[in-house]
Amino acid sequence: MTTAKIIDGKAFSETLVARVGVQASLLAAKIGRPPALAVVLVGEDPASAVYVRNKIERTTTAGMRSIEHRLADTTSQADLLELIDTLNSDEGVDGILVQLPLPPQINEEAVINAITPDKDVDGFHVVNAGRLATGQDALVPCTPFGCLLLLRDFLGSLSGLNAVVVGRSNIVGKPMAQLLLKESCTVTIAHSRTRDLQAVCAAADILVAAVGRPEMITGDFVKPGATVIDVGINRVPAPERGEGKFRLTGMCILKVPPQRPGQSRRCRAGLGQ
Ligand code: NAP
């Protein structure tokens, strides 16, 4: 009997950081300094602070230089755009990450599109989104790219497989669908208006859940033998851990009953970080 396999995203991310480290040292030898990533955090959002801390840690672990800019949540759009301008023209800065979300007085689109496309390591700039959509070399958002690397590692060729992406955000869902299309999958994008989501998902060989609703994808949504990638990071109350406590969970909650052999279960560790 075939049993379910869990894709170990965390282990994969460790090997990926090591591979990036090798490339970073080759690049450092070529340009005479370590590659440098500037991270900009505006405000005190606790989740953003964790993301930024992880990004800085991974950057330095891979042998790159991390440059941090922490700005008050009262920062004006003009001041942030001025900083982006300075980083754009700084030859010692190779990549720029502005942590989202930004405070309400700042227009995210204006900030993203102010980053020079070649330094837009998040791949959110309209030029990079357009390059990806038209099959050109692009800087690609890290979360869907991480999912793709996991899928390639786990499945080998993805060509011809039915892929369903649940979620259509610019950050995860849309670029994920574009990447899978580039791999010659037959791609369906599902969202909150999709009719009979369960039936759509149940046709998938590859199911990527990128919907911000905790534990909504259950075993009934998944065909036996399908590969499931759970992008979700949701903070939900966990009274069993004590009053006011929370736990992190994904969007998929898959128990593999014996009549569904070969089913893959959720994987979220390490994605996009
Ligand atoms: P988002 O912008 O909120 O998009 C959520 C998507 O889910 C939307 O397209 C929405 O459809 C769809 N949706 C909502 N309810 C649905 C339903 N009942 N049935 C079907 N589709 C539904 O979220 P996001 O930025 O893409 O992030 C998605 C999740 O990934 C979040 O949990 C986030 O925390 C996580 N995430 C993880 C990483 C990582 O590194 N692992 C990185 C980024 C995000 P509509 O468009 O119709 O509203």
Report what the structure shows.
- This protein has two domains: 32-133, Rossmann fold; 140-267, Rossmann fold, CATH 3.40.50.720.
- It is built from eight helices and eleven strands.
- It has helices spanning 9-31, 46-61, 77-89, 108-112, 126-133, 142-155, 173-182, 197-202; strands at residues 36-42, 65-71, 95-98, 162-166, 186-190, 206-209, 217-218, 227-230, 234-237, 246-249, 252-253.
- Strand 1 (36-42), helix 2 and strand 2 (65-71) form a beta-alpha-beta unit.
- The two termini are 35 Å apart.
- The model is unreliable at 256-273 (pLDDT under 50).
- The site of NADP nicotinamide-adenine-dinucleotide phosphate has 25 residues, from loops.
Number of helices: 8
Distance between the termini: 35 Å
* CATH arch. level architecture of the largest domain: 3-Layer(aba) Sandwich
Low-confidence stretches: 256-273
- List the strand order in the largest sheet: 5-4-6-8
**Helix coverage percent of residues?**
25-40%
Number of domains: 2
The set of bound ligands, ions and cofactors reads: NADP nicotinamide-adenine-dinucleotide phosphate
Task: Output the radius of gyration.
Answer: 20 Å
User: What is the residue-mean pLDDT, rounded to a whole number?
Assistant: 90
> Roughly what fraction of the amino acids lie in strands?
15-25%
Shape call: globular
Order of helices and strands: HEHEHEHHHEHEHEEEEEE
- Which CATH class of the largest domain? Alpha Beta
Number of strands: 11
Mind summarizing the main beta sheet? 4 strands, parallel
CATH third-tier fold name of the largest domain = Rossmann fold
What is the CATH superfamily label of the largest domain? Answer: NAD(P)-binding Rossmann-like Domain
Structural class: alpha/beta
